[in-house]
Structure formats: C-alpha cells, structure tokens
Amino acid sequence: MNNKYDTILIATKNKGKIKEFENMFKSFNINIKTLYNYDLPEIEETGNSFFENALIKAKAGYDISNLPTISDDSGLEVEALNWKPGIHSARFGKRSFNDQDRMFYLLEKLKGKKNRNARFKTSLVFYNGENQINKFEGIWKGIILKEPIGNNGFGYDPIFYDENLKLSAAQLSPDEKKLVSHRGKALKLFFEKFKSMI
Ligand code: IMP
C-alpha cells in the first residue's frame, strides 16, 4: 500500500503503548518512530485536560521530528473525589509512590464512601502542524472496588470494575481490555479516521 504517510512518530517512551501502536500500524506499511529515536528531555504535562496534555506532547514530538505525531494522555476520574485524580493519575499521592501505593491511597480516600462511580478517559491527538489537529476520545465507565482483584494490566486496573463484564480491568487479557477500554476506544476511532486520511 502506498501511503501519504511514510513515517509517523508516537510521542511516548511507554513500551506498552509503542507495542500497541506498532501492532495496529502493521497493515498500513508505515514506519513508526518513538521518542527513543530522539534526544528530547521529559515533556512537562502542564495542561489542564487530557486533551491539552496530549497536544503538548504531540507538538513537542512534531517539533523535534518534523513528522506527523500521535500522542495520548489518560487517567482515572472518581466521582466521590470531584473526578480526581484525573490528569494527576500518574502522580496521585506522594512522589515516592509506585502504582500499587497509589491504588491503596485511592482506596483509603474512598473508605466509607457509598458512591464508587469512576471512569477512565483517554484523549488521543494526531498532530501534523498547526492547522492539522485531530482529536479522538474514549471513556470507560466502572466502579472502584473495595479491594484489588486480578493480576493483569497496570495502574488502577485491579480496583476498577466493569459492571457489564462483572470483572475488574486486571482480570481482562490485553485483547479483551482493548475492546472496552478508554484507550482501545480512542485508538479505534483514530484508526477508522486514519484509513480515510492515507
Ligand atoms: P497515561 O497518560 O496513559 O500514561 O496514563 C496516566 C496514568 O493514568 C497512569 O500512570 C495510570 O495511573 C492511569 N491509567 C491510565 N490508563 C490506565 C489503565 O488502562 N489502567 C490503569 N490505570 C490507567
């Protein structure tokens, strides 16, 4: 297949995300570059929304590579915490916390709260210069469990429960998660549009 896009930059160093994109781009015959190909200091996420942060990362990637660039930003929003941690999901609690500490910190904050409603959100941006910004969003609704269940996934997966599937996110395989997750939905929308762009 001959494409308008020869090479695309995925503005991330997250190996899980890189693998996911590489898999999905395979059938398009497009080369993928990542931030491992460039000497770029860590990009500060100074935006006020997932979209703003995704755009900041996509612009930084585009500026250094001059390539059409994809970036995404995600997080968990919890209703009883005024929809926090949101854009601060990866930094929730103390600086020294790891994923597991953050998960237990969240459970502690929700102790005794009846409202356990939560949602994961992703904003994915495809940036190809000022006038070419495409945005794709995905939401996954669920509730926060009282204790972790399951060993798959990462981050808050073991305490995020999908009421339709009756499983936690950490009980899903990567392929099962992709079908229902915030990131999977945003990626699907992106690839649907991308097919018409190439
Ligand atoms: P990122 O922007 O995709 O790197 O996500 C930022 C943070 O949100 C992660 O470090 C996790 O804490 C949380 N997060 C985002 N997506 C997920 C998910 O699918 N499962 C669990 N936690 C997630």
Structure description:
With 198 residues, the protein is an alpha+beta fold. It has one domain (3-195): Maf protein. Helix content is 31%, strand content 24%. The protein contains five helices and eight strands, in the order βαβαββαββββαα. The protein has helices spanning 15-25, 50-65, 99-109, 174-180, 182-197; strands spanning 7-10, 31-34, 69-78, 84-85, 117-127, 133-144, 160-162, 167-168. Strands 1, 2, 3, 4, 5, 6, 7 and 8 form an eight-stranded mixed beta sheet that branches. A hairpin with a 5-residue loop joins strand 5 (117-127) and strand 6. The radius of gyration is 17 Å and the shape is globular. 36% of the residues are buried. The mean pLDDT is 94. The structure holds inosinic acid. The site of inosinic acid has 16 residues, from strand 3.
